[in-house]
Amino acid sequence: QVQLAESGGGSVQAGGSLKLSCRVSGYIGWWCELGWYRQTPGQEREMVSRISSGGTTYYADSVKGRFTISQDNTRGNLALQMDSLATEDTGVYYCSACGRVWGQGTQVSVSS
Question: How far apart are CA 44 and CA 94, in angstroms?
């Protein structure tokens, strides 16, 4: 059974940086993409970034050029480097495997 555990959220001023980490335990197949999603109150969860087993990356338009997703060779650790943070990036960030398994979420708060 796949389990995910996020860490690294926090509070930062606009223009600052944060790095989120996700520890992935259990078997994930080659077809399974790992990713980061975020949710704000009253809004649906939205995709921020995904990465395939082969390293192909996808980003939401709103974070392109500012966020970088990465995974280690074993796919046991997923990261999201977030630079030039804006207030609109505030939300709960979730690590995801295959779009079906979710971590508990970590809060990111960006103040102006």
Answer: 13
